[in-house]
Input
Amino acid sequence: MRGREPGVYVYWVMHAAKNLLKDRGRIGMIISNTWLQTDYGVDFGRFLLDNFRLVALIDLSFRLFDALISTVILLAEKEPDGNARNNNTVTLIRVPPRVGGGDLDAGKALESALRCIEGSIKDDGSIDAEALAKCQKEYGVWFRQVRQGEIPRDRKWISLFFAGVEDVVNTLEKLAGEGKLMIRLGEWFEPSRGNSFYSVWALNHKRRPDLGAKDFFYFSERKIDDWDRKVKGFREAVGRYLVPAITRAQYIKTFTFTKRDWELIRRRTGGGETHTY
Output
C-alpha cells in the first residue's frame, strides 16, 4: 500500500503526545492497522519511537467493528529520555482471525484472548513473556519482543509482524515497473474517488463511472456561477439551501479550552467551586 494520506488517528496520537500527556503518561488506543504498511506509516513510526516508550502493538486480524478495516491496539508511555526509549522492550502481538476453540463464539473467544494478554501486563507497564506464552498456547496468539532501539526507522513496520513481507512487496513493485509478471491496475481499471479504499469500474464493460463520491455531489462557487449563467436566478434560488461541507477532517476548526478559561468563567459568574464536565 502506497498510502500518502494519514488517517485522523495519526493526528490524534500526535496531539496527545504534545498537549494531553504528561511525561510518563500512558496512552491506549484501538486504531486502524493500515499505517503498518503505508508510506506515511514510516514517518508515524519514527514519531512513536521519538516520543514514546512502546509497551505493545497488538494486531487484530479479527474485525472488532462492523468496518472494512482491521485494527491494532497501541499501548505506549510518553518518555522524554532517549536512552529509556531505546533500551525499552517492545512486545509485538498478533491475534489470528480465529482464536481459541471449543464452544465459545468468535466474539467471546477474542475477549478471552485479550483478557489473557491483559493479564500479562505488569504494574510497571512491561509485559511478562512467560504469561504471554500461556496465551499463545491457549489461544494461538503470536508474539515476539524486540528492543525499541532496534526497530527500523526507515521501513514499514509490517515487517515486524511478518518477516520479509516488505521485501516481497518491493520486489513485486519493481517487477511491475519493469513490465514483468504483473500488470498495473491502471491498465485494466480507472480509479474513482469514493468513500471506500478503492472504487473502480471495468472500462471494457462500458459502465458509467458512477461509483463513489464524484464532483456531482459537491457544489462550489465555480459551479454555481456556471449554472447561474445557464439558468438566471439559480444562485438566488438555491443559496438558502447550501451549507459548507467538511470534506476532510483537517478542515475542522478546533479550539483548546484551558484551566485559565475555566477560572475566567468562574470569576465572571461569581461562582465558587468549579466543576468540569
The longest helix spans residues 106-119. Strands lie at 26-32, 52-60, 71-78, 89-95, 142-147, 189-191, 200-202.
